[in-house]
Specification:
Order of helices and strands: EHHEEHEHEHHEEHEHEEEHHEEHHHH
Number of helices: 14
Number of strands: 13
Distance between the termini: 42 Å
Largest sheet: 7 strands, antiparallel
Radius of gyration: 20 Å
Shape: globular
């Protein structure tokens, strides 16, 4: 395994990986129909579709884009095509952080890598029906990527709060707005990463993990944010899956803005226990949570997000129209809160599940 100190990458390019579920159109129960959908999909989209951990899932890997609206347009197009194929067999495509309804009908994809992962983690991966949104931001070189990586660790809870969509899991009201985060954090190579001062430090960790047979490639590290030398990107893995295209567009643009700020703004390390507590608050309460900010004061997650938007506007990284759109989203209830309110009205996890269906 080569962990490259890359050069000549793309300047703040964007791409995402979005994980979807394949469900029965009427019962919204999982269906192992990846092979059917893939084989019937237009050839021009097949390179951007991949298998996921479960046979009832699909992963979309977008091409590289430079504008958020182009990425969202592509995403709408490919999901529309996938949905057309799915509808021919009375299937629906859906996404949210966790599968809400009770189900034991999850089958692991017959893939050597996934089978090896399951063999290592066993019961921790039973009922592992979780979906995430991974945002890739391109960088010209490793050192710039490392600046963004370190700078972003403080901000990860804010993006988790914006995307939280996993309050209900396998028939259970967990009380935790992003239960997907807690499921993933059970795994030893996941969760909040540490800071690194330079390439050598990070490379040494990767080489040691490979030498000790803990990992086979850079893909086997599942931190909430990681540098991907192969793609020359910083990959933000913190977000729950989202089917709201406007929310997704704003999240992507704010992540890119944060990366741009990382190149010009002052960076301060935050103690690990504070980072963990901040992440817990976003996991538990999403947009209604509080965090300990850089000043050591308790601050609302909404206020910290507004400060990020304000700083981006002051540095001419966004326009006034986007700042207003972002602030309107920040004031809204989270997806998990919307799920909670819907369940209180209907007492139906099926209706909660339906919130994530792509129409």
């Amino acid at each position: 395994m080569k962990f490259e100190k890359f050069e000549t990458g793309n300047h703040f390019s964007i791409g995402i990986e979005l994980e979807l579920r394949i469900l029965d159109k009427f019962t919204l129960s999982p269906k192992d129909e990846f092979d059917y959908i893939y084989s019937n999909l237009d050839e021009k989209f097949k390179a951007n579709i991949a298998k996921e951990f479960l046979d009832s899932m699909i992963e979309i890997n977008t091409p590289i884009f430079h504008y958020e609206e182009d990425l969202i347009s592509y995403l709408k197009n490919i999901i529309s095509e996938l949905s057309k194929v799915a509808s021919q067999k009375s299937l629906s495509l859906q996404t949210s952080g966790t599968y809400a309804q009770k189900s034991e009908d999850f089958n692991i994809c017959k893939d050597k890598r996934y089978e090896k992962i399951y063999d290592e983690h066993k019961v921790l991966l039973d009922d592992f029906s979780i979906c995430g949104t991974h945002v890739h931001i391109g960088f010209e070189n490793f050192d710039k990527a490392l600046k963004a990586y370190n700078y972003s660790i403080y901000y990860l809870p804010l993006f988790l709060a914006l995307s939280a969509s996993s309050l209900y899991y396998n028939g259970i009201d967990t009380g935790i707005h992003s239960y997907r985060t807690k499921i993933f954090s059970r795994l030893p190579k996941a969760s909040i990463p540490e800071y690194f001062d330079n390439y050598e430090q990070m490379n040494n960790i990767y080489q040691l993990l490979e030498k000790s047979n803990v990992i086979d490639s850079t893909k086997d590290i599942w931190w909430d944010v990681r540098i991907q030398p192969h793609f020359k990107t910083v990959e933000f893995r913190i977000c729950d899956a989202v089917n709201d295209f406007e929310r997704l567009e704003i999240i992507i643009q704010l992540i890119r803005v944060m990366c741009q700020l990382s190149q010009i703004d002052r960076f301060e390390k935050v103690p690990m226990q504070i980072l963990k507590q901040n992440m817990w608050s976003a996991t538990r309460y999403s947009m209604d949570g509080e965090i300990v900010n850089h000043k050591g004061e308790v601050s609302l997650i909404r206020d910290e997000l507004k400060q990020l938007v304000k700083k981006a506007l002051a540095n001419n990284l966004i326009d006034k129209d986007f700042s207003q759109r972002a602030n309107r989203l920040i004031e809204k209830e989270s997806i998990s809160k919307k799920m909670e309110n819907l369940y209180k009205r209907t007492n139906s996890l099926k209706e909660v599940e339906r919130l994530g269906v792509f129409e």
